[in-house]
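Example for tutorial group B:
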């Protein structure tokens, strides 16, 4: 039997306690990685699942947009593991509101969680990747960048920044054996998006999903596992010659 693709690797997943982040963490564990889960919420359930796969896991309660808390996260990772090989920047926030209704504080908070956090995590952990001449950074963007979606100006602007940061870091780190790529998922069914109060695109979730499925090439709703497998690929040696790319993983809704 061939070895699992991430055997011997340590991966950080931000926002990994639930939803898409949890699916990503569990897939990386299935594929052989030990995990660090950073989230503002408790990650006991996903940690138990990861241990069931025979992998080690460190959970850290952390506001990923706080420089002090990310520095504490780095110190805890270094104390527990010899290094960090894979960083999956998944944590993010999303709200539906007209541009005129967005306050400057809300604008700044969206950028802090969706974009500043990626700057902080990569800044904290890039040194060990460069020392080892190997690393993978996978940033979660959004397919809304490729479609016409109103009422999400702060979200779309921050995710556009994710794509720009991905390209910039890929250019700087490639010579050190580090790849940096982004995934742009579609609207994914998670406990968060299935809340009755969640209204993507300004309409109920069921209505939004129906419209998306009718327009997409693949005629079913998107699940977290659809994204998790692509993350695992980008974190593997098989994707070692791919960098600076944004992959749309949305059933063919956006075709670029």
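The residue assignment follows.
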């Amino acid at each position: 039997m061939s070895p699992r693709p991430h055997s011997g690797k340590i991966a950080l997943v931000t926002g990994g306690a639930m939803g898409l982040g949890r699916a990503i963490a569990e897939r990386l564990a299935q594929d052989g990685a030990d995990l660090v889960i950073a989230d503002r919420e408790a990650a006991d359930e996903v940690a138990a699942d990861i241990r069931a796969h025979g992998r080690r896991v460190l959970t850290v309660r952390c506001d990923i947009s706080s420089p002090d808390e990310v520095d504490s996260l780095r110190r805890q990772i270094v104390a527990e593991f010899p290094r960090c090989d894979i960083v999956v920047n998944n944590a993010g926030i999303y709200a539906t509101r007209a541009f005129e209704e967005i306050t400057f504080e809300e604008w700044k908070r969206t950028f802090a969680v969706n974009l500043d956090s990626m700057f902080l995590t990569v800044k904290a952990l890039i040194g060990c990747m460069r020392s080892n001449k190997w690393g993978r950074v996978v940033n979660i963007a959004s397919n809304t960048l490729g479609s016409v979606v109103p009422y999400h100006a702060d979200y779309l602007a921050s995710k556009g920044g994710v794509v720009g940061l991905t390209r910039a870091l890929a250019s700087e780190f490639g010579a050190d054996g580090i790849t940096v790529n982004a995934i742009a998922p579609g609207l994914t069914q998670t406990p968060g998006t299935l809340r009755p109060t969640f209204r993507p695109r300004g309409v109920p979730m069921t209505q939004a999903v129906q419209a998306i499925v009718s327009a997409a090439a693949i005629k079913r709703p998107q699940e977290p596992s659809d994204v998790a497998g692509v993350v695992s690929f980008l974190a593997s040696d098989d994707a070692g010659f791919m960098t600076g790319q944004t992959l749309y993983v949305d059933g063919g809704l956006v075709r670029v």
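The chain has one domain: 10-249. Compare this with the pattern of hydrophobic and polar residues in the output above.
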